[in-house]
Design a protein that fits this description.
Layout lengths: L2 E5 L4 H12 L3 E5 L2 H10 L3 E7 L4 H13 L8 E5 L4 H10 L3 E4 L4 H14 L2 H5 L19 H22 L3 H18 L2 H13 L5 H24 L36 H10 L7 H12 L5 H8 L3 H11 L13 H8 L1 H10 L15 H20 L9 H7 L2 H9 L1 H14 L3 H9 L3 H11 L4 H8 L11 H17 L19 H6 L9 H25 L2
Parallel strand pairs: 1-2, 1-3, 3-4, 4-5
Helix pairs in contact: 2-3, 7-8, 7-10, 8-9, 9-10, 11-22, 13-15, 14-15, 17-18, 17-24, 17-26, 18-23, 19-20, 19-22, 20-21, 22-23, 23-24
Length: about 575
């Protein structure tokens, strides 16, 4: 049975047709003109079939059908014409535009019902938009192997970007429009929702001041597609499990459940001194390969300015450190040590940066170092903490700390170092910590005689990289122990906690105690005296929680773009 939109002028024939369809188990919505029909389709997304009965004029029926066939969303919806007109030319014209059947009025009830059920059964227009829009269940993967989570990611992206696209279109911020379209295009390609890809192309071609109305129309079609996707994913239920043919014999004694054996404590062949020595000899850090490729493409595509270059490089911790190391090297030979990206890139020069990125081929992908956690989740946690550090800094009542972003980005760099140098042992440590609920720093120290904090600080020290950042990296768990840069370490401390608590990426470190809150963190006591006068403590905490929740969506979408 299906939902039918019945379009026609109110008269006895229309009432009888609606009665026949309802009696056969269909749900019928009746409207009386083409304009209302269009609105009805956009509001009633579960319509399976449109029946156009005689309108005031034959041209009105023809115009409605043409609009449907030219529409990205409804071009495949089945349509039946129910008319008193018997002229051959009229029938041929409707068939050429595209209908499933032309029924003469009056027609026997049985013929009407058979034609309706055939049209609904043969032409599932929603399935042509996406194979699972009306399948009744959502499997783990599509027949082509695309994980169904991609459809959920597409929905998340559409929910996030559509309001921004509308606003950007109004203020003519076409740079933001194009950035959003890149993400949506990627998801459309991945999921195989061809109509979304076509809509995005159409929107990008019309997103100019002189064609703004066309862009608005296309945007409304994308919103319809979003609503349809949301309806399907939100209401579909997994298939009920099949009952076994034979009932299990419940008289048998159930086997005793064995507790899984505890993981063995990882061991290390090298001494702590040898681990420190290996860290000091490292010249390059692994990078997230998709992120690095994205930066390469951005830097090599046309002319980029200094601000663009800074924004690109600061997306990847390993690349940040390489740029800073290059700026402080004898090749550049600065008079004073350089500890911020903007100064580093000014010294290196954008031409040299592009040449460096062009020549960089044999990089170690960070995502391949980890087996116990996802490398992309660690990257998301790094970037999320960095962005949140800047926001926390902005809300405090003291001068802006220039290294807040870098300190957040690099606070977990020691994990990457240890996984790069000792992948088998460090993944064993991560797995041991997670499964046995042992604090990661304790597990690290028992194996390596150092924590990731000490490893990260040691790397920064041996490569003469940002001094203020080194203190924050070393003491981001215990900022009260820092002899300098105490406020910076405290900012990283609470930003790191908020990212863990909100699930912004996953660093491999569990939140120590789920019952603790922001005010129980070591950094809170240090920063509370710097809370801006416009906030009370509770207001400040609520503001941070709201910002971290918004940031979570931004980072998730960045992760999708680079997946």
């Amino acid at each position: 049975m299906g939902k039918i939109l019945l379009v026609g002028q109110p008269h006895e024939t229309l009432v009888g047709l609606s009665h026949h369809l309802t009696e056969a188990g269909h749900v019928v919505q009746t409207v009386h003109d083409a304009e209302t029909a269009n609105k009805g389709l956009e509001g009633e997304l579960l319509t399976d079939l449109v029946i156009i009965a005689d309108l005031e004029a034959e041209e009105e029926s023809s115009d409605l059908l043409k609009k449907l066939r030219e529409d990205f969303i409804f071009q495949n919806i089945p349509v039946i014409i129910y008319s008193v007109h018997t002229e051959r030319e009229t029938v041929i014209r409707f068939l050429q535009i595209g209908i499933q059947n032309y029924l003469l009025c009056p027609s026997p009830k049985e013929k009407i019902i058979a034609s309706v059920e055939k049209a609904i059964g043969d032409h599932n227009w929603r399935a042509k938009l996406c194979p699972y829009f009306d399948s009744g269940k959502i499997p783990e993967k599509t027949p082509t192997g695309v994980p169904i989570k991609r459809y959920r990611e597409t929905l998340t992206a559409l929910n996030w970007f559509l309001p921004k696209l509308a606003k950007s279109l109004e203020v003519e911020n076409f740079q933001q429009v194009n950035a959003a379209l890149k993400v949506l295009s990627f998801l459309a390609r991945e999921t195989g929702i061809t109509v979304l890809k076509d809509l995005i192309i159409d929107f990008s071609m019309s997103s100019r001041p002189e064609t703004r109305n066309e862009a608005r129309h296309t945007l409304s079609r994308i919103e319809i597609l979003r609503n349809l996707l949301q309806n399907t994913l939100g209401h579909s239920k997994p298939e009920a499990p099949v009952e076994p043919e034979e009932q299990e014999d419940t008289t048998k004694e159930a086997p005793l459940l064995k507790k899984p054996p505890a993981l063995k404590k990882p061991t290390m062949e090298q001494s702590g001194e040898e681990v420190f020595e290996a860290i000091s000899q490292l010249e390059h850090l692994p990078v997230m390969e998709p992120v690095f490729s994205f930066i390469q493409e951005g830097a090599l595509f046309g002319q980029i300015g200094l601000d663009d270059a800074v924004d690109l490089v600061k997306m990847e911790a390993g690349l940040c450190l390489q740029v800073l190391a290059l700026a402080n090297s004898t090749y550049v030979a600065p008079q004073h040590s350089v500890d911020d990206l903007e100064s580093a890139l000014q010294l290196i020069g954008l031409d040299n940066l592009q040449e460096f990125l062009k020549r960089t081929r044999n990089i170690t992908p960070m995502e391949k170092l980890f087996t116990a956690i996802e490398g992309s989740h660690l990257w998301a946690h790094q970037v999320g903490t960095a962005r949140l550090c800047v926001q926390v800094n902005d809300l405090l009542n003291f001068p802006k700390i220039p290294h807040a972003y870098m300190a957040g980005l690099l606070h977990d760099v020691g994990k990457v170092l240890l996984a790069y140098l000792f992948p088998r042992q460090y993944n064993a440590v991560l797995e041991w910590s997670i499964k046995e609920k042992i604090p990661l720093t304790e597990a690290e120290y028992s194996c390596f005689s150092m924590t990731h904090e000490e490893a990260g600080a040691s790397f920064l020290e041996s490569h003469r990289l940002p001094g203020p950042v080194k203190a924050a990296v070393r003491f981001h768990r215990h900022p009260e122990k820092a002899l300098s840069e105490v406020e910076l370490a405290a900012i990283v401390n609470i930003s790191n906690f908020l990212c863990k608590n909100q699930g912004i990426g996953f660093s491999g470190s569990l939140v120590a105690d789920s019952s603790t809150g922001l005010k129980e963190q070591a950094g809170w006591e240090i920063l509370r005296e710097h809370i801006h006068p416009r906030f009370g403590e509770n207001d400040f905490e609520n503001e941070l929680l709201e910002r971290s929740e918004n940031l979570k969506q931004e980072v998730q979408l960045s992760t999708l773009q680079l997946a």
